[in-house]
Amino acid sequence: MSLKRLFIGLSFSNKFANDLEPWIKKIKKTADKKETDLSWTPPDNYHVTLVFLGQTEESEIASITEKMQAVAEKHAPFKLKLRGLDGFPSLMQARVLYLDVQRSQNILNLQGDLEQALQAVDRHEAGYVPHLTIARLRNPKSCRDLVSPFVHIDLGKQEVCEIVLFSSQMNGNFVSYEKIKQIQLGGNESLGWAQIQQP
Fold first, then answer.
1. Is residue 199 assigned to a domain?
2. Tell me, what's the pLDDT at 1?
3. Which residues are known catalytic residues?
4. Within a domain: residue 193?
5. Domain range spanning residue 74?
6. Which comes out higher in pLDDT, residue 64 or 153?
7. Alpha helices in 34-151 (DSSP H)
8. Are the C-beta atoms of residues 76 and 137 closer than 8 Å to each other?
9. DSSP type of residue 89
């Protein structure tokens, strides 16, 4: 039996990663001043998780992608807004730094339909909270002072035009991601990132 750790999410273009880099540099500089020890997410790993499937037999992948296709056909491309920095589970005892993703009705509907089709259970007590992880703390600590200058930054909008089936695995202290299947949302237009406002 061959298992893969799977999840469905949204991926990010190289242009987005390049446009985001000036903000990441400013956040890193502030983290260094605050002596906050962080492990930074490589730009190739930027994503927004929609549904986590966990350890799954490879034989189930075909069925999963069929269900993803059926859901994708019902959803047109839409814009996704990123709008600031925050910490999880709280700023006072943060383990993760992430960019906030607007909980628009479009992403909530897409996530809910995928969750229902795949009979996946959301593990968050507060419901689905879309986010993009940029760093993990080696030891939980307060990040209020680190995050406060970046709470209201405007990171622009992305045109979401596909969903992706990912597999993840640990390579030493880092997680690597593989795109198993990319499925276009209904409409099939080729859409890219809107311009991000530079710091």
1. no
2. 63
3. 47, 131
4. no
5. 3-184
6. 64
7. 61-72, 105-118, 144-147
8. no
9. S
